[in-house]
Specification:
The complex is a heterodimer of chains A (323) and B (498). Chain A has 323 residues and is mainly alpha-helical. Chain A has helices at residues 2-5, 8-26, 33-58, 66-82, 87-110, 116-135, 152-155, 163-181, 183-193, 195-201, 205-230, 243-254, 265-284, 289-310, 315-318; strands at 140-142, 157-158, 161-162, 233-235. Helices cover 73% and strands 3% of the residues of chain A. The two termini of chain A are 19 Å apart. Chain B is α/β, with parallel strands linked by helices and 498 residues long. The longest helix of chain B has 16 residues, at 170-185. Classes of the chains: A mainly alpha (323), B alpha/beta (498). At the A-B interface, α9, α10 and α15 of A face α10, α12 and α14 of B.
């Protein structure tokens, strides 16, 4: 059926293409290769975080703490490096920190059975607080010292493609392989679809949830490193911004249902594309930050409304067997 | 005399797929009219159009000869047509009395007055429900009673019941039929949808049978018998061998004792119960709702949360085990096929193949971390063939299948885990007649192949047909054991209620 094929993912992809064509025609310099490259570069970090968030939402959870984990872990790492620690050791410290955050999140959600939204909301504040109190007392940490391979992560180019884009592609590819071809990935889909059925079927539901939040935290660290090296520094106050909503926007816009078990990495890429094109176009048009926010929210609402109209979730369509 | 409700050539399509096609249906005044059919035959859809839940895409509905179109259930209710749903529509956090008067509250609502009125009303119907109890604390049967009472209270002319007796105990059923009789005397017309042919034959004045969305028979009950209805429902005569009495051929030989449950207790639901299960046999477990039969099975399979576990011992092949989560049980070869497949049976967004694959992955039969798509396709091919699962296409999500096919998927998912002990909890609830026969045959095959099979059911013919041993549960423990030779409906039922 034709109607069946017009799901949210396709609508969003179509909208992105329409917007792309529209901006190419109406905006000067939009189609310029330099601009297109910066477009992808700018949304890479959003995309990387989106992959993490997608992991949470597919497993019927949500992780609001990534926007604290990302800057705090990266800033602490920079701090350690600036204090003279070797890069690999600093990386190990940051990794240990994010894994700990992931474990606490996972244990709270899986074993203590706190709803994910509350557990991660609180953890986000705790992580930011710990960062401010002990790890990174100042708001912004800048990269000091010389050129190294490490700093190329955010600024380098491979075959003309900016490295953040390559990191995004890499994270997306790994996450896709994980979700599709690895047992834990399949289990996360099962748990997201129906946790009770997953339990009865004999899946290790609780360990999988913990693993899921550890992976999300690691992805947050990757996003933090890319941000820090791209901007030669990182501001921990990102944790207090509304960026977490942008991340959820990317994921939900792409068509990953908040009820869990649905969608995949493709949806994140589609959502990121649309938001990227939109943000870039709006920036060229010189729209104010507030207007941009309004437009973003309207588009999210529109996507959800269209999806609801095309795929109604009433009792009848939910239970074809029972007609 | 003009009929109360007449449906003329009604058709309902969902996205181009017809659920009901050109049905002419007549409901006379003061009659009890049973609507029968397999799952997916269009019974629910037909009745939902009568009470305004959905609207026909073609044809017409006449109420007392006047054409009507109900856009909402409220409009239908105003004209005196009410429906009692399969899934209860009560507010769980409110009391029974509040639910009864929901929507009719006065501006100043006196709780005591409400409770007294509800009490009188419930008593007039012989329903033993406490009006001050919150609905969430009630069992399925009591919820159903409140639901029925609410419809009766609206003084309607037509009440449509969707599977009203599925959750009721025999005694409650008795009350329910008496109630329906009284309603009929008051001039209320009743439509009831059922899977239970005996019930329909017993209480209905007229019977309508639907098949694949079309009306195949509609006549007075006296002109029907069980065989004729079954033939009309499935379009063929079910071979009697599938419904054979086991006693004729004798029970299977007793195999090794694979599972022994000793003095297990949990809360006040399971009280100090003991029994054993043997390989190569079907052990039937009969009990009424609340007799603890499901809970015992859930303890054995590690499904029950252990918070209320009060001790006892479970031995698997003479080794003591206590499972905290189903995972360990599944790995040891004990699987539990749930009675509530919608809630905890299958993964609704996934295809049949993915569902089966989930089972195999969870059982850890293959130790590799990387999953194989070829293995998944192979599983799907094997099992859809073995269990005769019918789907429109292989990409169909399980939620889109009929009840019988969903149940087959749930069973196949468990069998893909290669269990040694398999516990079926109400294996044929909400399953159409054709699929019931297939599932029964399949259960027999499993036992023949040497598995220890436990079948829990509150449907006596099922237990009597399948079992090599019959255990009867009552108030939290296994109280009696019958061999198929000595078991009769009367004896088993007597043990279950006394």
């Amino acid at each position: 059926m034709v109607v069946d094929k017009l799901n949210q993912e396709r609508i969003v992809l179509l909208t992105a293409i329409v917007l792309f064509v529209f901006f190419s025609i109406t905006l000067n310099g939009f189609i310029d290769p330099g601009n297109l490259l910066s477009l992808v570069q700018n949304v890479s970090i959003l995309g990387i975080l989106g992959v993490g968030m997608a992991l949470a939402i597919i497993g019927r959870g949500i992780d609001l703490s990534i926007l604290s984990t990302m800057p705090v872990s990266a800033a602490w790492m920079l701090n350690l490096i600036n204090d003279g620690m070797p890069i690999w050791l600093a990386l190990a410290c940051a990794l240990a920190f994010v894994v700990l955050v992931g474990i606490v999140n996972g244990v709270l959600i899986a074993y203590v059975e706190v709803p994910a939204i509350f557990a991660t909301l609180a953890m986000g504040i705790v992580v930011y607080g710990i960062g401010k109190a002990w790890l990174v007392p100042i708001d912004s940490v800048y990269i000091r010292g010389g050129e190294s391979w490490f700093y190329a992560i955010g600024t380098g180019r491979i075959l003309g493609v900016p490295t953040p884009v390559i990191v995004f592609a890499g994270v997306a590819l790994l996450a896709w392989l994980f979700l599709r071809y690895l047992k834990p990935g399949r289990f996360i889909y099962g748990i997201g679809d129906n946790p009770l059925a997953a339990r009865i079927t004999g899946m290790p539901v609780r360990p999988m949830i913990v693993l899921q939040y550890i992976l999300i935290s690691i992805i947050a660290l990757v996003a933090g490193i890319v941000t820090a090296t791209a901007l030669s520094g990182i501001n921990t106050r990102v944790a207090l911004s509304t960026m977490v909503y942008d991340v959820i926007l990317v994921v939900v816009l792409g068509g990953i249902g908040l009820s869990g078990g649905k969608g995949g990495i493709r949806n994140v890429i589609v959502g990121t594309l649309l938001i990227g094109i939109l943000l870039n176009g709006m920036t060229i048009m010189n729209l104010s930050y507030t207007v941009q926010n309004i437009l973003k929210s309207v588009i999210l609402l529109a996507a959800i409304v269209v999806d609801t109209l095309l795929n109604p979730r009433d009792e009848q369509t939910a239970q074809h067997g029972d007609i | 005399m003009t009929p109360l409700i007449e449906m003329r050539q009604v058709t309902k399509e969902y996205r181009g797929v017809p659920a009901v096609t050109n049905v002419d249906f007549v409901l006379r005044r003061g009659e009890i009219h049973a609507v029968l059919g397999e799952n997916g035959a269009g019974k629910s859809t037909l009745t939902k159009m009568m009470c305004g839940v959905t609207q026909p895409t073609g044809g017409q509905m006449l109420l007392e000869g006047e054409p009507v179109l109900f856009r909402t259930p409220a409009e239908a209710l105003e004209k005196g047509v009410a429906m009692v749903f399969q899934e209860t529509s009560l507010v769980p956090s409110m009391t029974v009395a509040q639910n009864l008067y929901l929507g009719d509250e006065k501006l100043f609502n006196r709780i005591r007055g409400l409770n007294i009125a509800a009490q009188t009303f419930l008593q007039s119907m012989n329903f033993n429900v406490n009006p001050t109890a919150t609905v969430s604390s009630l069992g399925a049967a009591h919820k159903q009673m409140v639901e029925i009472a609410r419809a009766v209270r609206k003084n309607v002319r037509v009440i449509i019941f969707d599977e009203p007796t599925a959750a009721l105990t025999p005694e409650e059923k008795h009350h329910f039929f008496a109630l329906i009789g009284r309603l009929k005397q008051q001039g209320v017309s009743i439509i009831f949808i059922s899977h239970n042919l005996e019930e329909a034959l017993q209480i209905a004045d007229r019977i309508t049978v639907l098949r694949d969305g079309e009306l195949v028979a509609s006549d007075q009950t006296s002109r029907f018998d069980r065989d004729k209805i079954v033939r009309a429902m499935v379009g063929r005569s079910l071979s009697n061998s599938l419904y054979r009495k086991h006693s004729g051929e004798g029970a299977r030989a007793v195999g090794d004792r694979v599972l022994s449950v000793q003095n297990v207790s949990m809360g006040n639901i399971v009280k100090n119960t003991s029994f054993s299960v043997y390989a190569g046999q079907v052990t039937g477990m009969f009990g009424l709702i609340g007799s603890g039969r499901t809970e015992v099975a859930k303890i054995v399979a590690g499904v029950a949360k252990r918070n209320f576990f009060n001790g006892g011992e479970i031995k698997l092949n003479n080794a003591s085990v206590r499972y905290r989560v189903p995972r360990q049980a599944v790995r040891d070869g004990i699987v539990y096929v749930t009675e509530d497949r919608k809630v905890e049976g299958f993964f609704e967004t996934m295809t049949i193949a993915e569902n089966l694959h989930m089972g195999a992955l969870a059982a850890g039969l293959n130790k590799t971390v990387v999953v194989s798509m070829a293995e998944m396709r192979e599983l799907a091919e094997t099992w859809t063939k073995r269990l005769n699962v019918k789907a429109i296409n292989s990409n169909a999500r399980v939620i889109e299948l009929s009840g019988g096919n969903q149940q087959k998927v749930v069973i196949a998912k468990s069998l893909a885990q290669e269990p040694k002990i398999i516990i079926f909890d109400e294996p044929t609830r909400g399953v159409d007649v054709g699929a019931i026969a297939e599932i029964h045959q399949f259960i027999n095959e499993l036992a023949d192949r040497g598995l220890a099979v436990v079948v829990i059911s509150s449907y006596l013919p099922e237990i009597l047909n399948l079992s090599d041993r019959i255990l009867v549960c009552r108030s939290g423990r296994v109280v009696e054991e019958f061999s198929p030779e000595e078991a009769t409906e009367d004896k088993v039922m007597f043990a279950a209620v006394h």
